Description:
The chain is of the alpha/beta class and about 150 residues long. The chain has two domains: about 5-50, Multidrug-efflux Transporter Regulator, Chain: A, Domain 2 (Orthogonal Bundle); about 55-145, Rossmann fold, CATH 3.40.50.1390. Helices cover about 45% and strands about 20% of the residues. The protein contains seven helices and six strands; from the N terminus they run βααββαβαβαβαα. Strand 2 (about 35) and strand 3 form a beta hairpin. It is elongated. The relative contact order is 0.15. Mean pLDDT is about 85; it is low at about 50-55.
Amino acid sequence: MxxxxxxxxxxxxxxxxxxxxxxxxxxxxxKPMRTSGGHRRYDVSELLGTKxxxxxxxxxxxxxxxxxxxxxxRQVLVLESYCASKGWNFEIIxxxxxxxxxxxxxxxxLIKLITTYQVERLVLSHKDRLLxxxxxxIFYLCEQFG
Length: 146
């Protein structure tokens, strides 16, 4: 599945300036598509490279309050142990906040990684750790973005 993005979105996605994208195009490193109006559109899969065995596994841990920090540490340890035992290339994202808060920094980062095709699999200790209500929406995003 190809997903085309504008130059500014492409630059933000890979952490470079739009001028760098233009320079890479001039050097032949990138081949953007041109719209009828002459605007550049970049293929996300080309920007991020093709999926391979080094795809990223994300472990997500969350607890609701500072009183539960020990539970957060336990979740992280369980997720790290599990992912390491499978031999996966993984990263753990942690959040401290309500499961009903959709504005948690880690959750927003997770959604961004999923929607830019950077996540191979998502590992949770329990689906309520993701969100108290609405975890099915994140699972749907996972399905749609591979």
